[in-house]
Design goal:
This protein is α+β, with helices and mostly antiparallel strands. It is built from 16 helices and 13 strands. It folds into 3 domains: 133 residues, Alpha-D-Glucose-1,6-Bisphosphate, Chain A, domain 4, CATH 3.30.530.20; 78 residues, Pdz3 Domain, CATH 2.30.42.10; 150 residues, Four Helix Bundle (Hemerythrin (Met), subunit A). A 7-stranded antiparallel beta sheet has the order 1-7-6-5-4-3-2. Helix 10 packs parallel to helix 12.
Amino acid sequence: MATKTISLKRTINAPAEHVYHAFTNATSLREWFCDGAMVQPRVGGRLYCQWDDGHALMGKYTALTPEKKIALDLRGDEEGDYSQCVITLSFKDDVTSLQLTDSSEGKLWIKTADECEANWNAALDNLKSVLETGIDLRLARRPVLGVEIGEPKPGDEGVRLDGVTEGMGAREAGLQQGDVILSVSGKKTPSWNAIGAALNGHAAGDKVKVVFRRNGKTMNATVTLSARPVPEVPATAEALAEIVARKYTEVNRDLTQAFKGVSEEKAARAPAPGEWSARHVLAHLIAEERNLHTWLADMIASNEPWYDGETGALRIRLDAVINGFPTVQALLTELKRNEAETVALLNALPDEFVARKGSYRRLALRMLSWPDHAREHLSQIVTAVRH
């Protein structure tokens, strides 16, 4: 039976160690190849990758030679035979030469080989970009609606907006804070990731239909997609930590001001049954900061968890935090203590982690916007204490 073989080459300005890591570590695979991954990096170990659009790739490692060779049997989630994928690496003069072959006798695989080759080409281009610059081309090239994501409320069935960005498509189309996006371009959007998946294949300037709910009424708008800004990140861990510490100081000043003259009774009072009191908001910020510490440690160890849901808004957890810190001042002090721990973690980021440009850039981008999360809750605190 005839065998079809794909053969591709790349030169990557990164150590072979980093390239090998990119094919054998779940955290790294998410940064250039897929949206979620689980791997067992040993001969006979399993590999599973999935994308937000619902398709998946699975297989097992058949050969592993650190910094030199990775071999896998692979198949998609459709019926079909496995293909044999082999990646060989050689390192010289600070450049890694990569050769990838993927071959199979399977009828379905041969039928879709051209599509497979195009997908591998795009993936290897992204691998090169992530390892050399830290930039994930899947995100950099994906356009945006121009929205800010807020905290979900029971029954939302979509993505609640905390705001819309000046000068971008969503604002021009009339979307506003509090709207809940139900679908984009005909695809349901139960989560933020689903919005990103719905924009795959689109470019800046394209028009998409957005269905949303406002005050219980379902509406729709045509949004012109905007180009995604490509922000700069600090070159060093110390510079990143300094910026984040300054942002924490600024937002903590505003948080303290929001509670000025507020009694403990008012701070503990919820605006309505089932809603958060101002103390619950502070407990939420503390819980999320603690979650952040776990994520930072796992990122440093290349062991990022893959969660089905978030726990920072779990009411039982917020009540437990308040039980441990029963006054506003105690909660504010605990929040600042956790923020100081965050800054200390950033200051101590190992050089070898910063050298993994994809991981460092992803961490840095998250941290540069992280203090804004507390600022987004300021209006919620003000509303609660004025009730």
